[in-house]
Amino acid sequence: MWKLIEDLGDCLRQVPGVTLAIENTVRTSRSPETSLTTLSSISLLLTHFPHPAIALCLDLAHLHLSELDLNDPVGRETLFELLKRLRGRTRVIHVGDSCSAHGGRGERHSRGHLDVSSIRAILRHPLLRGIPTQLETPPYYRGLRHTTSTFSKRVSALETLRTSLERDFVQKIVNVPDEEWALKEKIITQRYFEEKKRVEDRIYKIMEKLKLKTADSGGHRWGKWKRCRDREVAVSRKVQGMKRRKKRSRACSLERSREQEGKQNWGKGSDREGDVAGEVQVKLEKL
């Protein structure tokens, strides 16, 4: 830690007037206590090195993956406690999701494990109000961005549309009032995913035409794009399957607990009936 502080001091002296924002990443070591890339380690670093040119770049996907379960209110409260120690030294927030669950090791951004309501609760917190946010979403169609063909221009335009949908969606979930969000959370989320799917389907059709038109370059681009898309679909299906299995498991455990409670109550009722019958028999014998 102290060696890192000395190196940061040397860098800032050599490049004055520059703010260095340190991003929390997925930890490289097996123990979060021995890693210098977690939010707790960066918070400790900024506490011992209160230089105004050193700040924090908060990555929600990395934080949820390797350190805190942001879907849990306890994890979010721990995040806010760490941010309070920094006293406003957070400069930017990377908003994204991860293809791996909390505690995993995959770093690829995807739709999956970080709930929209959790992202909303974090971005609406007073400690993070007004801080610039940057969306980190999977680049499906990077292979066509720097070509000059008509197909690549159309795909690039649709990519821009997809990015604007994502940006508007994040702004909407942050700015919508709590009462409206409680009533329309599913509607807002479902509408966004439907619009995004329509844009991606249009890109899919363009890439299909490109495959049929040019067998050499187009086929190569098509294969690269299709592999990326299939990978995203597989990850999404895996995540949804895990959620369904967890839901069924919770339902089964709840049903078993109810059955056990019913058996216990039935046994108590039978014992009580037996006691009452015995009391009646004793009274009859006395008569």
Automatic annotation (TrEMBL):
Q: Per the record, GO CC terms?
A: mitochondrion; nucleus
Q: Where is this region: Disordered?
A: 240-279
One function term, GO molecular function aspect: phosphoric diester hydrolase activity
The source's superkingdom equals Eukaryota
**Span of domain Xylose isomerase-like TIM barrel:** 12-139
Write down the InterPro entries for this protein, in alphabetical order: AP_endonuc_2, Xyl_isomerase-like_sf, Xyl_isomerase-like_TIM-brl
Q: What is this protein called?
A: Xylose isomerase-like TIM barrel domain-containing protein
Protein's organism:
Kwoniella heveanensis BCC8398
